[in-house]
Amino acid sequence: MSPGSEEHKNLFCRFFIDTHKPFQPEDLPWPELDGKTVRKLAAFPIWNHAVHTEKQVFIKLTAYAREETDPLLREALALQAYEEGRHADILKYFLKRYNIPFNEMPDDPLPGNLEWRFMTTGAGECIDSFFAFGFLQISKSTSDYPVQLIEAMEPIVQEEARHILFIQNWLLYQRRRRSLFLQPVHAFMTLVAFAEAGRRRLMDLTKLGGTAFTIQARKVEKSSSLSAKDFIDLCLQENKRRLSPYDPRLVRPKLIPRIMNMARAFL
Ligand SMILES: [Fe+2]
Ligand SMILES: [Fe+2]
Question: Which ligand is nearest to the CA of 159?
Fold first, then answer.
């Protein structure tokens, strides 16, 4: 199967559509939580931002799917948009269920270049997922949060694994569809998208969660006694495991694992 071919397109779109799981937020096995846990969750300064971000991805990706002329690609993009919208709904359901206060922010205006926006959003998902898969595994082994709550979130986490696999193949497909002259431009723009997504995350961290995130990271560090190197190894292993159920012909996300493998050598 050569990347950029019809066969490639059918493979990564069909994989995505066929592995979609239909469910509603209230179907997830939400556990009963004690007051202490709820207060701890409510103290995170991220909820408004998280609900807003998921909803904006839903809106932008829905608009981008409408622009796509290929019916199969359009169906897969619209499905990913639907899943992002469902993430926003799941978050809202979770916050209401445990009486955690949050505010919905007004929607952003639609950006002009929706394809570029999907590239940067996709790059961001690849960065977030890489670390989230590792963090989640650690949270299961520490007693910071009830395992039942982490388990309830499991379908969403696995959904992110499907998203980054789809995005990686979509990026490669888009690149190979271009003329030989434009392919390096697309490859360069992909790197810019990753750099932009990385920069935004660093800004967000310093802006809203710097303290919360570092405190959390330190706690994880303390309770799990993992070194930075061990943590990267765990992330690499978890990324591999989460993507292993899917067709081996699909191209796996490479950039972040490669960068982290290089960083590991310096630790
Ligand atoms: Fe999401
Ligand atoms: Fe996603």
Answer: 2
How many whole angstroms from 180 Cα to the centroid of ligand 1?
33
All residue ranges of the chain with pLDDT < 70 are 208-225
Please tell me the distance between residue 19's alpha carbon and the centre of ligand 2 in angstroms: 14
Enumerate residues 6+ apart whose C-beta is below 8 A from 165: 12, 15, 16, 243, 246, 250, 252, 253
pLDDT digits (tens, 9 = 90+) for 183-221: 999 999 999 999 999 998 888 777 765 555 555 555 655
CA distances from 154 to 27, 69, 146, 209, 248 (A): 13, 33, 13, 23, 22
Predicted TM-score of the model (pTM): 0.91
Radius of gyration for the chain, computed over Cα atoms and rounded to the nearest angstrom: 19
Ligand nearest to the CA of residue 127, numbered in listed order: 2
Kindly identify the ligand whose nearest atom is closest to the C-alpha of 86.
Answer: 1
Q: Where are the domains of the chain?
A: 6-266
Domain 6-266 CATH class label: mainly alpha
Cα distance between residue 145 and residue 46, in whole Å: 17
User: In this predicted structure, what is the pLDDT of residue 223?
Assistant: 56
Distance 121 CA to ligand 2 centre (A): 9
